[in-house]
């Protein structure tokens, strides 16, 4: 039978209280913070790693980027939301899972369900053709051809009904041009068919372009941000067209905004915001992002609603353009 020892018991209680007090006084962050990235490794992930490394320098702890692809980016969001709301999990809130999938009814959240840290980067889409094309030399000449030859133009946005398809369909609708979208499971195959003449034009991402700029005639950069034109070496952008496409801000491109669970404590959120703001202002970080062909974004958390809010409505309008394209093609059969 164990005997009660008041001295030992008192010491144990004192030690327990000291440990508890130390834990209560510990400042965030004490350990590794993880960034959940919703895509497979690639250019987008390398850009996130650049920012994460700079934030790690600011916070004094490791900040690895965890690739969690699947379900059009929503798997990563669900994974992150299943973690405690303690600031040790950051979400790489790319437009597809954050805004587009909820618009399409494939997710039960909205952008307003999260606390923003800071805008990260954008990656502009472009419409490109072959440098040796003889039927047209620029985008508006191609649109004139398409108007005169309904349904004859063939293009690809990679898979169908994705964000690039929505943006391109909206542009074509604005010109009254009906074209056939040819789906591909891999961007590389679409680029190969563009070069061989199977396709007339195609969605070109920054990665495709940076690998071989001479392989494409970039006819239109689908962004109004000055940095996007620079990514495609000064090619024409939607700003240069004398037509209102109804596309503005972040709507016609890929972008990411880093976010955390809405229940994350305010003081923890503020430390993360401060660290990311400092990281995004560093010249070396901005230069590294631009070298990959992405554009660093300067909006802080106070501008989240102003910048991200309108994207949802514009994506809805672009979804209508997909339906328009499908109906017009049916009429030509």
Query: What count of helical segments does DSSP give?
Result: 12
Largest sheet: 6 strands, mixed
Strand content: 15-25%
Would you identify the CATH architecture of the largest domain? 3-Layer(aba) Sandwich
Taking strands numbered 1, 2, ... along the chain, how are they ordered across the largest sheet?
2-1-3-10-4-11
- Give the averaged pLDDT, no decimals: 89
What would you note in describing this structure?
The chain has 333 residues and is an alpha/beta fold. The chain has two domains: 34-122 and 253-299, D-Maltodextrin-Binding Protein, domain 2; 126-250 and 317-332, Periplasmic binding protein-like II (D-Maltodextrin-Binding Protein, domain 2), CATH 3.40.190.10. It is built from twelve helices and eleven strands. It has helices at residues 6-25, 43-59, 74-81, 95-103, 139-148, 163-175, 187-196, 206-211, 226-231, 266-281, 283-292, 304-332, and strands spanning 34-37, 65-67, 89-94, 114-123, 126-129, 154-156, 180-181, 201-204, 217-221, 254-261, 295-296. It has a six-stranded mixed sheet, sandwiched between helices. Strands 7-6-8-5-9 form a five-stranded mixed sheet, sandwiched between helices. β1 (34-37), α2 and β2 form a beta-alpha-beta unit. The radius of gyration is 24 Å and the shape is elongated. The termini are far apart. 43% of the residues are buried. The model is unreliable at 17-24 (pLDDT under 50).
């Amino acid at each position: 039978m164990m005997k009660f020892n008041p001295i030992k018991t008192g010491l144990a209680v004192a030690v327990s209280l000291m440990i508890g007090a130390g834990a209560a006084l510990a400042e965030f962050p004490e350990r590794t913070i993880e960034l959940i990235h919703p895509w497979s490794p690639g250019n987008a992930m390398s850009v996130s790693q650049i920012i994460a490394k700079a934030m790690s320098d600011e916070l004094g702890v490791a900040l690895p980027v965890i690739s969690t692809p699947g379900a059009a980016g929503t798997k990563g969001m669900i994974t992150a939301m299943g973690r405690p709301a303690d600031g040790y999990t950051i979400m790489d809130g790319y437009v597809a899972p954050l805004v587009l999938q909820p618009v399409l009814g494939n997710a039960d959240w909205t952008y307003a369900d999260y606390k923003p840290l800071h805008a990260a980067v954008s990656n502009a889409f472009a419409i490109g053709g072959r440098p040796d094309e003889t039927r047209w030399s620029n985008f508006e000449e191609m649109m004139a051809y398409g108007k005169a030859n309904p349904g004859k133009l063939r293009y690809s946005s990679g898979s169908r009904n994705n964000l690039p398809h929505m943006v391109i369909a909206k542009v074509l609708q604005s010109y009254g041009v009906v074209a056939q979208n040819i789906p591909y499971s891999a961007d590389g195959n679409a680029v190969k068919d563009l070069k061989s003449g199977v396709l007339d034009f195609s969605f070109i991402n920054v990665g495709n372009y940076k690998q071989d700029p001479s392989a494409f005639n970039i006819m239109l950069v689908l962004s109004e941000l000055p940095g996007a034109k620079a990514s495609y070496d000064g090619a024409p952008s939607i700003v240069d067209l004398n037509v209102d496409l109804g596309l503005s801000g972040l709507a016609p491109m890929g972008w990411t905004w880093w976010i955390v669970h809405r229940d994350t404590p305010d003081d923890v959120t503020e430390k993360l915001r401060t660290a990311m703001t400092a990281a995004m202002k560093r010249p070396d970080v901005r230069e590294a992002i631009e070298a990959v062909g992405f554009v660093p974004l300067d909006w802080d958390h106070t501008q989240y609603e102003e910048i991200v809010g309108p994207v949802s409505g514009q994506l809805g309008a672009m979804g209508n353009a997909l339906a328009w394209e499908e109906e017009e093609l049916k009429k030509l059969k």
